[in-house]
């Protein structure tokens, strides 16, 4: 039996469950349960917070998982990635108040930037030779400039409407993300075999969608 960790409830949940179902894997889904077993494939599904998924897979509590690349890279777990899944696409972007002048990344030199992704942001700033003060906050990042907490933000953007409604303007795209399948590096032969079967089905689903 292979253990798959997916997000319990959030932006990844629905498409993760949909992918498993499209692979012909049946299970009874209940939002109240923490885990469920497939009725026709050797798979058990664990429902977790997305941030916990890379750690559980690295520790072997789950064998495989589905998570956003933004979370995976921020947690320094890129080595677990097996395959991009093509959904939950978004980007991590820098944004400034729309009335602020901005011409290039060097305008952020010495400024303060609020984000929930300090590592990805720091890497990007270092690559661009910019030193800034990073304020790590766990949520409501987009209100940081208007309350005087930071000059700029670095946050997940999808349609861009959250930025607009908070009077912000996207100025740099820092990181592109989508959902990825991740796996523990030390699966035994039996589990690896099940994963190969699952991947075979995922590829068939992806081909059918093209
Ligand atoms: O509770 P749990 O910890 O499991 O979930 P979470 O609240 O941490 O994550 P969740 O469900 O919000 O997002 C899960 C993953 O979905 C993220 O890690 C991304 O990989 C991906 N994703 C895709 C997004 C978005 N699109 C997205 N739009 N994650 C967040 N957003 C937020 C963003 O933070 C901002 O507040 O949506 C807002 C921007 O959206 P637009 O459309 O207005 O630009
Ligand atoms: Zn989360």
TrEMBL record:
Pathway: Amino-acid biosynthesis; L-histidine biosynthesis; L-histidine from 5-phospho-alpha-D-ribose 1-diphosphate: step 1/9
Record-level GO cellular component terms: cytoplasm
Catalytic reactions of this protein: 1-(5-phospho-beta-D-ribosyl)-ATP + diphosphate = 5-phospho-alpha-D-ribose 1-diphosphate + ATP
Keyword Kinase annotated: no
GO molecular function: ATP binding; ATP phosphoribosyltransferase activity; magnesium ion binding
Biological process (GO), any one: L-histidine biosynthetic process
EC number(s) recorded for this UniProt protein: 2.4.2.17
Coiled-coil blocks: none
Top-rank EC class of the record's enzyme: transferase
Residues of the ATP phosphoribosyltransferase catalytic domain: 49-203
Top-level taxon: Bacteria
Signal peptide (residue range): none
Cofactor section: Mg(2+)
Activity regulation text: Feedback inhibited by histidine.
Keyword NADP attached: no
Subcellular location, record wording: Cytoplasm
Keywords: Amino-acid biosynthesis, ATP-binding, Cytoplasm, Glycosyltransferase, Histidine biosynthesis, Magnesium, Metal-binding, Nucleotide-binding, Transferase
Primary role: Catalyzes the condensation of ATP and 5-phosphoribose 1-diphosphate to form N'-(5'-phosphoribosyl)-ATP (PR-ATP). Has a crucial role in the pathway because the rate of histidine biosynthesis seems to be controlled primarily by regulation of HisG enzymatic activity.
Protein family per UniProt: Belongs to the ATP phosphoribosyltransferase family. Long subfamily.
Protein name in the entry: ATP phosphoribosyltransferase
Gene name as annotated: hisG
